[in-house]
Design brief:
The structure is a homodimer.
Chain A (H helix, E strand, L loop, with lengths): L1 E6 L3 H11 L4 E6 L11 H13 L6 E10 L6 E2 L2 H7 L1 H9 L8 E12 L2 E13 L15 E3 L11 H7 L1 H15 L5
Parallel strand pairs in A: 1-2, 1-3
Antiparallel strand pairs in A: 3-4, 3-5, 5-6, 6-7
Helix pairs in contact in A: 1-6, 3-4, 5-6
Chain lengths: ~190, ~190
Amino acid sequence: MRTIVFVTGNTGKLAEARAKLGPLGFDVTQDKGGYPELQCDSLEEVAKEGVRAVAGRLDCDFILEDAGLFVDALHGFPGVYSAYVNKTLGCEGLLKLMDGTPENGRAARFEAVIAYYEKGTLKLFKGVCHGRISDSMRGGGGFGFDPVFVPTGDDRSFAEMCKNEKNAASHRGRAFDQFVEYLKNGQSGH
Amino acid sequence: MRTIVFVTGNTGKLAEARAKLGPLGFDVTQDKGGYPELQCDSLEEVAKEGVRAVAGRLDCDFILEDAGLFVDALHGFPGVYSAYVNKTLGCEGLLKLMDGTPENGRAARFEAVIAYYEKGTLKLFKGVCHGRISDSMRGGGGFGFDPVFVPTGDDRSFAEMCKNEKNAASHRGRAFDQFVEYLKNGQSGH
């Protein structure tokens, strides 16, 4: 059994990591110490700066994860600031911004980046889920912008799916899948 | 003549600093090296973290400044992320978010914080300008959200004022005035 620390305050994400990494023989423990998040254009930059900070206080292998919703018609907004925008404007605000935007202009994507810091080396694993912003909030599950995001190939929002369905299709699920591949095969992230 | 470095990429802000500090015998020079901006709730936190980073690379007294627009009806949005939100959503996006909000619900404030790092000690000077979000964009001057912000006691937006008028009434002008008072009298910031 190998231990890996997940720097996160979110117990849902912790459970997802355990479900993915447990079968590979990893014991995933939680660190709630957090890390400073930069204002910048990409999740990769946020993750790299976070790793730099956490590496200064943890003396073990660890992962951290950052995710965001990028809406094409809004020039990538809310992007790396998704948590803040969800807290202030909410799904209602996002729908208001998209008001009047036709079906073919509502493309958006969820992105997630997992940063793995192992023996002083950083690897990044990215998962993307393409889809569109719905016309209204739908579903009672999920969190954040899940009620207004419909992944490509489905008619339901993330909030209308059960947890396992969402985790299989989601940006975070895909990032974890890449991380699992790396751990299994020693293939490199970037 | 005493030299003070202003860490900013904005030549308009540099000119404003020179106009305010020159008469006190300060030679204000520009440093374009920038600093990392944190994701957090207040300008003070952004400024403090910026000072920490700049102090690591500059061996002299310096100032930096951060500003933002805080809209009451949007729970403080766009706040410390104003530059990013202006770039992605613009004034049009902000007006869309405020669509349907009556006159008495359109209160907002511009805030500016100047951080002064002098011989290893940090002082913060804050300026606030209260006002409201207009119904439409007005005026061709200023930058950022100036065309949609009308300061209390005036009917014109910041973008309808000449530079000197705006600088006298603005959040940044007020922060600089406090800084000037401190330099004149040795009164303390916070």
